[in-house]
Write a structure and sequence with these properties.
Distance between the termini: 53 Å
CATH architecture of one domain: Up-down Bundle
Shape: elongated
CATH class of one domain: Mainly Alpha
Strand content: 5-15%
Largest sheet: 6 strands, mixed
Oligomer: single chain
Strand order of the largest sheet: 6-9-10-3-11-12
Helix content: 55-70%
Radius of gyration: 36 Å
Structural class: alpha/beta
C-alpha cells in the first residue's frame, strides 16, 4: 500500500507528464500571464503619478494627467487582451489534457486483465473516466488562471513596493505567513474529506448504473423499495461528506481575508505616518513618501493579498480535482494483462488441435480451482464440457482463449507452417489477436453495440458483402425476424440490443460466427435463450458448421451434446469422467446422475 505522500508525488508527476505535450502552448500562456500581470501592476503606479500631479503641483498639470490617463487606458487594453488570450489557451490545454487522460484510461481498460473487471464495479470505472476527469479539468483551469498569475502578482507587487518603501514591504512580508499557515492547515484537514466524497460519488454512480441495467429484474422481484432505501442511504452519506468537505474548506477564504485586512491596515497606517512626516523623527524605519506613493502602496497591498484570497477561495476545487486525478491515474497505472512476448508470432493456419498439459489455475491464490488438468483434443472433434455450476467449465474456456493465463502447466495449439508441417505452440508464444481470431465464440450472455443490425453482424468480418451477411443470417435462422424489422438489416438498435428479445439477440451473435467461419468453435450455452423449435434448427445449423472444425460445447441441457465425440465431465475443477454419451452412461457415474436429474427436471416442467 502506497503512502499518501507517495501517491501525491506520483499524481503530480503524472500531471506534468501530460502537460509536457503542450510545451509551446504552456509557454505562450505563461507569457500572456506575465504581460497581463505586468500591465495590472503598472496601473497603480500611473494612478500614484496622477495623484501627485494634483497634490504636489500648483497649478495642476493637466497635460501630464492626460498623458498618464492615455497610458493607463493602453495598459488596461493590453492587460485585457493578454488575459483573454491566456484564458483561451488555458482552456485548450486543460481540455486537451483531460481528453488525453480519458483516451489513456479507455485504452487501459482494453488491456486490463479480466480479473480487474471481475473485482471492480462498472459504474465506478465509468465515474473515474467521466465525472472525475471533468472535475479535474475544472481544477486544472483554476490552477492555470489563478495560481500562476497569483504568484506573478505577489512577486511583482513586492518588487514595486520595495522600490517605494522597504519598511512597509517588510511589514507585508512578515504578516503574510499567517495567511499561508491558515490556508495550509485547513487544506490538509480537508483532503481526506474530499477523498471520501470522491469514493462515495463513485459508489453512488456504480449503484445507479446497476439499478438502471437491472431494472427489469428489480421490478420482477418487487425490489424497488429496497433499492430506493439503499440509494437513499448512499445519497445521504454523499450529502454529509460533501457538506463537511465544503464547509471546512470554505473556512479558508474568510480566515485569509481577515489576515489580509490586517495587512492592508498596517500598510495604510505605516504609509500615513510616512506621508505626514513621522519619518523625519523615526530615522531609517520610515522613508518619506508622497500621497501618490501611499495610494500606490495601498493598491499594491490589495493586489498582493488578492491572490491569497483567490487561491484560498478555490482550495475546494483544487483539493477535489487533485483527488479526482489520483483516482484517474490509479486506473491508468493499473497493471495491464501479461504482455505478449517480443517473439510472439501470428498463427495463420491453426489445425484445430488443442493440448492441455498439467494445467493449474485459481482465481484466488488460496482457493485452487483447476489442478493438473491434462487433455488432448484432436482436430475436427466435438468436445462437450458438462458439470454442475462452478465446476470450472467456463474457466476452462477462458484459459483456452487466454482471457486468463494458467498458473502452472501449458496450453498448446496446433498449426500448419508454410511447409505444410504440423506443429504445436504454447498459446503464450502466440499473439492474442491471432489466437482469438482462430475461434468463433457464442456465449450465453450476448453483447450488441449501438448501431444497425448489419454493424453488429460484421464485427468479425467488416468487409463482408450483403450476400454473405444474408447467407449467414439464414444459416442462423435470424433472417426471417430481421426482415420483419422496420428497416431490415439497416434497423438501428440501442445499447445491448434495445427492444430485441433475448432470443433475437442470441441469434444475431450466432450469425456473427456463421459469417466468419472460424477453424475452431466455442459454444457456451449458445442456445439457452432460444425456443425449442428454433433451437433444433440452430443445432442442425451448428452441426453443419462444426463439420471439420474443432468445437468446444458447454451445456447444461445434456440433450444438446449427446452426439459429441468426447464428453468431459468436470467436478471441482477436475475432469472426473470422459468418453462418449454411451460410454459414460454405461459407467453409471457422475454423468449418468446428471442425465437422470435432467430428465427428471423435464418431466416436472
Amino acid at each position: 500500500m502506497k503512502s499518501k505522500a507517495t501517491v501525491k508525488k506520483s499524481t503530480l508527476k503524472n500531471i506534468f507528464k501530460y502537460l509536457k505535450g503542450y510545451k509551446l502552448s504552456f509557454l505562450f500562456t505563461l507569457l500572456m500571464g506575465a504581460v497581463s500581470v505586468a500591465m495590472a501592476l503598472y496601473i497603480p503606479y500611473l494612478i500614484g503619478q496622477a495623484i501627485d500631479c494634483i497634490t504636489e503641483n500648483q497649478p495642476i498639470d493637466f497635460p501630464e494627467i492626460r498623458s498618464i490617463l492615455f497610458k493607463g487606458a493602453m495598459a488596461i487594453a493590453v492587460s485585457a487582451l493578454a488575459q483573454w488570450l491566456m484564458n483561451i489557451i488555458n482552456n485548450k490545454i486543460a481540455y486537451n489534457v483531460v481528453r488525453d487522460m480519458r483516451n489513456d484510461a479507455f485504452q487501459k481498460i482494453e488491456v486490463l486483465p479480466l480479473n480487474y473487471m471481475d473485482t471492480h464495479r462498472t459504474g465506478e470505472t465509468v465515474s473515474r473516466i467521466i465525472s472525475d476527469a471533468e472535475l479535474f479539468s475544472d481544477g486544472l483551469l483554476l490552477g492555470f488562471t489563478q495560481l500562476f498569475t497569483g504568484a506573478l502578482t505577489i512577486m511583482g507587487t513586492l518588487f514595486f513596493m520595495l522600490s517605494i518603501s522597504p519598511f512597509i514591504t517588510a511589514i507585508v512580508v512578515i504578516l503574510t505567513p499567517i495567511s499561508l499557515f491558515v490556508a495550509s492547515f485547513i487544506a490538509k484537514k480537508t483532503h481526506s474529506m474530499f477523498v471520501l466524497r470522491a469514493s462515495t460519488n463513485a459508489e453512488q454512480t456504480a449503484f445507479t448504473d446497476e439499478a438502471i441495467v437491472g431494472q427489469k429484474v428489480i421490478a420482477a422481484f418487487g425490489r424497488q423499495n429496497k433499492k430506493q432505501i439503499e440509494f437513499d442511504e448512499i445519497n445521504e452519506r454523499y450529502r454529509v461528506c460533501s457538506l463537511k468537505a465544503i464547509f471546512f474548506s470554505s473556512l479558508v477564504n474568510p480566515c485569509t481575508r481577515f489576515v489580509n485586512s490586517i495587512v492592508y491596515a498596517a500598510v495604510a497606517l505605516a504609509g500615513a505616518f510616512s506621508v505626514i512626516g513621522v519619518s523625519g523623527n523615526a530615522g531609517i524605519l520610515f522613508t518619506a513618501i508622497t500621497i501618490g506613493n501611499l495610494a500606490t502602496l495601498l493598491s499594491y497591498a490589495n493586489q498582493y493579498t488578492k491572490p491569497f484570497n483567490e487561491i484560498s477561495g478555490v482550495i475546494t476545487e483544487l483539493q477535489n480535482s487533485f483527488t479526482c486525478a489520483e483516482r484517474i491515474f490509479a486506473l491508468i497505472d493499473e497493471e495491464p494483462e501479461i504482455p505478449e512476448k517480443d517473439d510472439a508470432f501470428v498463427i495463420q493456419r491453426p489445425s484445430g488441435q488443442v493440448t492441455l498439459e498439467n494445467v493449474c489455475f485459481s482465481y484466488v491464490p488460496d482457493k485452487p480451482l483447476i489442478q493438473n488438468l491434462s487433455l488432448t483434443v484432436q482436430s475436427g472433434k466435438r468436445i462437450a464440457i458438462v458439470g454442475k455450476t462452478g465446476c470450472g467449465k467456463t474457466t476452462l474456456i477462458n484459459l483456452i482463449m487466454r482471457f486468463y493465463d494458467v498458473k502452472d502447466g501449458s496450453i498448446e495449439i496446433g498449426f500448419t507452417d508454410i511447409n505444410n508441417t504440423q506443429l504445436t505452440a504454447d498459446i503464450r508464444n502466440v499473439t492474442r489477436k491471432s489466437l482469438r481470431a482462430s475461434y468463433g465464440m457464442v456465449l450465453q450472455e450476448t453483447w450488441l453495440k449501438r448501431g444497425s443490425i448489419k454493424d453488429n453482424i460484421i464485427l468479425g468480418k467488416p468487409d463482408a458483402t450483403d450476400e454473405e451477411i444474408i447467407a449467414a443470417a439464414k444459416a442462423a435462422h435470424a433472417h426471417s425476424f430481421i426482415k420483419r424489422l422496420q428497416n431490415g438489416y439497416d434497423t438501428l438498435i440501442g445499447e445491448d440490443g434495445g427492444s430485441l428479445s433475448q432470443g433475437q439477440k442470441q441469434l444475431l451473435c450466432i450469425t456473427r460466427v456463421m459469417l466468419c467461419l472460424p477453424p475452431m468453435l466455442i459454444l457456451d450455452e449458445a442456445t439457452s435463450s432460444i425456443d425449442t423449435r428454433t433451437e433444433q434448427q440452430i443445432q442442425a445449423a451448428f452441426g453443419t458448421l462444426m463439420e471439420g472444425r474443432t468445437s468446444f460445447i458447454v451445456a447444461h441441457r445434456l440433450s444438446t451434446i449427446r452426439n459429441a465425440d468426447l464428453i468431459l465431465v468436470m467436478k471441482d475443477g477436475n475432469v472426473v469422467e470422459m468418453g462418449s454419451h454411451r460410454e459414460l452412461m454405461a459407467k453409471k457415474g457422475v454423468y449418468a446422475e446428471l442425465e437422470a436429474a435432467g430428465q427428471a427436471a423435464v418431466k416436472n416442467e
